[in-house]
Amino acid sequence: MNAGAAIRAAAECLAQTSDTARLDAELLMAHALGVSRGDLLLRHMADPAPDMFAALVERRAAHEPVAYILGEQEFFGLPFRVTPDVLIPRGDSEVLVEAAMAARPGASTVLDCGTGSGALLLALLAQLPQARGLGIDRSSAALAVAADNAARLGLADRATMRLADWDAPGWADGLGRFDLILANPPYVEDAAELAPSVRAHEPAGALFAGAEGLDAYRVLVPQLPGLLAPGGVAMVEIGHAQAGAVAAIGAAAGLASRLHRDLAGRARVLEMWTN
Question: How many CB atoms lie within 10 A of CB 198?
């Protein structure tokens, strides 16, 4: 069977579990052939389908995310290595990077709380060549992925990754203060309905934050004023219904806030600064 026919058959199979079945099949075939999706569609549809393609389709049919199968996800135009130790970067989070660039284009110091794959921090550093950044995470496995991404993107000289847990007393001792703080903490309610590809495959510790999805904000946000440099701002990603609650947590800690929405018009990021 050639690649084109195998893709058609795979798309029919994947339609039961994926809303992007044809795209998934094309990406998996391109990966199996070792070519880009564009090259596949232009030059390789008549090639024999590799034996490994069927196994890749089986993994996707079992709800494993395509990004984990491929080991890579694009974010802000950059390729990031991803593993099941880190959340898959989503395009909706790009508004956080854009808002940070607009708020402090001259920033020289950046802190990323819960860096995961390093996507937010590294995308921002790629746009701000004068800046240096620190990514912290409580997962050593995630930090290994982030450090690898920094090296792959040529940013290792400006990006440091450090094991730290904002739930632990003294975690921020000696870190200093930052012009920009980025944070995409866990914010999903424990009982939330999630797609099987998310609940069964992405790291629970980076997703869930108590009955209301606010536990991480209650701990992290009150600590932000002590980490912000004069004139600094924090960009905190939120769930679509959490703007009011997180803004209130910030206000109680002396932080003013401004809401940024994603391309779909949903509440996505709170920009926070000290009053």
Answer: 16
Per-residue pLDDT, 129: 96
Topology at the third CATH level for domain 3-62: Helicase, Ruva Protein; domain 3 (1.10.8)
**3-state secondary structure string across the chain:** CEHHHHHHHHHHHHCCCCCCHHHHHHHHHHHHHCCCHHHHHHHHCCCECCCHHHHHHHHHHCCCCHHHHHCEEEECCEEEECCCCCCCCCHHHHHHHHHHHHHCCCCCEEEEECCCCCHHHHHHHHHCCCCEEEEEECCHHHHHHHHHHHHHCCCCCCEEEEECCCCCCCCCCCCCCEEEEEECCCCECCCCCCCHHHHCCCCHHHCECCCCCCHHHHHHHHHHHHCEEEEEEEEEECCCCCHHHHHHHHHHCCEEEEEEECCCCCEEEEEEEEC
CATH of 83-274, one of 1.10.3720.10, 1.10.1740.10, 3.40.5.60, 3.40.50.150: 3.40.50.150
| Gap between the Cα atoms of 115 and 191, Å rounded | 24
- Point out the residues of the chain with pLDDT beneath 70: none
Q: For the chain, what are the domain ranges?
A: 3-62, 83-274
pTM: 0.93
Position 275 scores a pLDDT of 83
Query: Measured between alpha carbons, how far is 93 from 145 in angstroms, rounded to an integer?
Result: 19
Task: Give dist(CA 19, CA 248) in Å, integer.
Answer: 37
Residue pLDDT, tens place only, 122-167: 999 999 999 999 999 999 999 999 999 999 999 999 999 999 999 9
Distance between CA atoms of residues 187 and 165, nearest Å: 16
